[in-house]
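Hey, I was hoping to borrow your eyes for a little while. I'm sending you its amino acid sequence along with the backbone structure tokens. Take your time with it, there's no hurry, and the full record follows here.
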Amino acid sequence: MTPKTLSYLSHWTVYVPVLAVAALVLTWGRDLPPPAVVLAAALLAGAVLAAVHHAEVVAHRVGEPFGSLVLAVAVTIIEVALIVTLMISGGEKTQSLARDTVFAAVMITCNGILGISLLVGALRRRIAVFNPEGTGSMFATVAMIATLSLVLPSFTTSRPGAQFSPAQLGFAAFASLGLYLLFVAVQTRRHRDYFLPITTAGQVIDAEEHLEPPSSRAALTSLGLLLVALIGVVGLAKGVSPAVESAVESAGLPQGVVGVVIALMVLLPETIAAVRAASRDRIQTSLNLALGSAMASIGLTIPAIAVAMIWLDGPLLLGLGGTQMVLLALTVAVGTLTVVPGRANVLQGGVHLSLLAAFLFLAASP
């Protein structure tokens, strides 16, 4: 091995994912004592940071907008696996887990990641500039599939409560997946330039200007380590979830807070990656991560849950409550006003972050 290869293999982003998976193997299916929970949480955080690093290496190699898809799709697959796993073992109390987690992901991405990205970009350049065509099409798709999958179940009459009939769930799953795949085709092929970063003067940035892209070998290595890190994230998140559920129950908080915590853990890599991109004046990359993650969270999660319901017992509660619908409607209205001009200042970032704060507060105190 060359000195450069040895140096790479000795980097913490290589061995932390391996340690996370090793800890997962040793703790799988066991009740963890408090010290083990703390250690698992530390390795979980390390795996998240390692995932961000490797996702950025892959993204740098393949370029935008393909790079933004790597982390969004990978993390969403992990989110789906975590939701299905918890639903299998959780019983009646997890009937609304998919709804709570997906809605939390939408609020965190469309208000939290988007808001902090705009705030960081505006503080750096006074005005955060992005492409309204690409951002607007992403936001419209998110609003469409969120309404179809999370709002309509509260108004349909085929089944009691906030749930779809099997035929309705199949239609929602098919439509969500179809729209997501159509978006990917538009983003990566037909209108790729709509999703490339632009400068404050409106000039498209089609490549990194100062850094040489990593080699194909390094990118493939990082892709493999990204998958290892994400496996460690979801496995350790499942391991610490009983402690989270116990803490939520002991604090007298609603069960829906568990879905919020899951979404926060799963979306942490994308949040860090988006903030880093915004700090480098790549606001469009940050928005690609935020809205692409929201779209993937619904467009992939709902179809996967629909398939899982073939063998899962009990109803699947997808319809939002009144408070959640108001927050979603406000997010759509404010987000539309934010993305249409293609320029934003610190105020828009602050408004979106205030919406996230309202969501988090009302989730804990409905």
User: Anything to note?
Assistant: The longest strand covers residues 128-129. The domain at 3-364 is CATH 1.20.1420.30 (A middle domain of Talin 1). The beta strands are 128-129, 343-344. The radius of gyration is 20 Å.
